[in-house]
Amino acid sequence: SQQGEEDPQALSIQEGENATMNCSYKTSINNLQWYRQNSGRGLVHLILIRSNEREKHSGRLRVTLDTSKKSSSLLITASRAADTASYFCATATTGANSKLTFGKGITLSVRP
Amino acid sequence: GAVVSQHPSRVICKSGTSVKIECRSLDFQATTMFWYRQFPKQSLMLMATSNEGSKATYEQGVEKDKFLINHASLTLSTLTVTSAHPEDSSFYICSAIPGNSNQPQHFGDGTRLSIL
Prior knowledge:
The complex is a heterodimer of chains A (112) and B (116).
Chain A: E1 5-7, E2 10-14, E3 19-24, E4 31-37, E5 43-50, E6 55-58, E7 61-66, E8 71-76, E9 85-92, E10 100-102, E11 106-111
Parallel strand pairs in A: 2-11
Antiparallel strand pairs in A: 1-3, 3-8, 4-5, 4-9, 6-7, 7-8, 9-10, 9-11
Chain B: E1 4-7, E2 10-13, E3 19-25, E4 32-38, E5 44-51, E6 57-58, E7 67-73, E8 76-81, E9 90-97, E10 106-107, E11 111-115
């Protein structure tokens, strides 16, 4: 069964703008991970945030985690056309190497 | 580092054919690999967890006799879709974890399976 639910399901923005994507989950987690998938390709790991962390940064990416609300957000700043892809959140209940439960994904389109 | 290669990238075959998909970790040893299935514009659904040297653990609702998984070495897991039918058409993706580590999963590029 799916754990994460992202919103919005689709997002279209202009290059240079920021993109914010949200994910909610239902059960207790050890960590939450965000992945990117280009059309017809595999997934690329973006960032992992552990249940005892509240915020994490990686380049233009900023992830927050609110375990009390069982939600996470992914912010991409200064978006580029190359950021166009589907983004998934995934939760793990035991370590970073445990099996993942993926959300439905968000399709991000960045217009040049 | 941590590259996962999946082969073939695309396969089209007739109904009733068995299809084997390979997942290789190229620069690391993977004691655990995962197999996922993804329908168009949908999420990844975990099918099974493949453990080197032991039987795979299948998720509820996945037919183990339909989707045979073999993880005979630390760098190779295979998924065989037996007697494939059109409803088995999907995008299959594998992932691998470097052995004895707490690293996230590294994904292959997926296999597009089309059964006519």
